[in-house]
Amino acid sequence: xxxxSYFNVSIGIAFLFTVYNGVTLMEKIILTAxxxxxxxxxxxxxxxxxxxxxxxHEARRAFxxxxxxxxxxxxxxxxxxxxxxxRFSQCIDAIKSLCPGVIVQPSTGGAAGMKNDERLQPLGxxxxxxxxxxxxxxxGEDDIFVNSIATIKYFAEKMRERNIMPELEVFDRSMINxxxxxxxxxxLGTPLHFNLVMGVKGGIGASLGEFSFLKDSLPPExxxxxxxxxxxxxxxxxxxxxxxxxxxxxxxxxxxxxPGELAVSNGQLVEKAIxxxxxxxxxxxxxxxxxxxxxxxxxxx
Length: 301
What we know:
Shape: globular
Number of domains: 1
Distance between the termini: 46 Å
Number of strands: 18
CATH superfamily: Aldolase class I
Largest sheet: 8 strands, parallel
Low-confidence stretches: 9-25
Strand order of the largest sheet: 8-5-4-15-14-13-12-9
CATH class: Alpha Beta
Structural class: alpha/beta
Helix content: 25-40%
CATH architecture: Alpha-Beta Barrel
CATH topology: TIM Barrel
């Protein structure tokens, strides 16, 4: 692994690039906030939201800080993760009441061990976007996150039926291969938008070399967001910002604002990511600007 701060990453890469693959660094950058996830707990950080209103207020803090997309898992009040459509409906309604215009992106990953149709429940609410995991991996020390090609095809078909834009979640290079195979077989349409998730135990690491390997494996016309797990969050944010990508931060992926210091909110994490992007000449996109960048077909259903 290459140990470096986001400042060193930004200075080193920015010295080499003012334009990357034709993308000027003054272009807008989309901030996604993954506000609670399915695994992190209040025991790890007491600010992790569980209840409907806790989730809505964390979404508001992220939105007011500059997030255009709220990546959403939901919990019951005791913290148990669920894909229950009614719980998603309650949370999405509460979020939209506090965050006018925000894009809500439900997870179809759910939690390890959930069945396919259980994971797909939030699609019944016709969100603009949803996540589509593109492969199986060891997840942490004990879990296996299972996504066979048959499962991925099934999820892609359900999203296409409802005109929901998939964000293609990839945890290593083979998952990009799978996504491109499914695109060639017409299970995925254009535009293709990826999320490069880096630093999960069982997936690819989060070094500069590994980031470049994933980024350069994408089709040139695809857009991408990058997610760094744990202490990798802001290094990956800098790499994404300087190479024309977009950024995801939030409690799902990281609960610290700096080494040893717990973040007080998702908004604080978004603010730091925006400061990093700003140092590299990137300006946060509004939700409607994000829709235009990603070519989301809003209001089809």
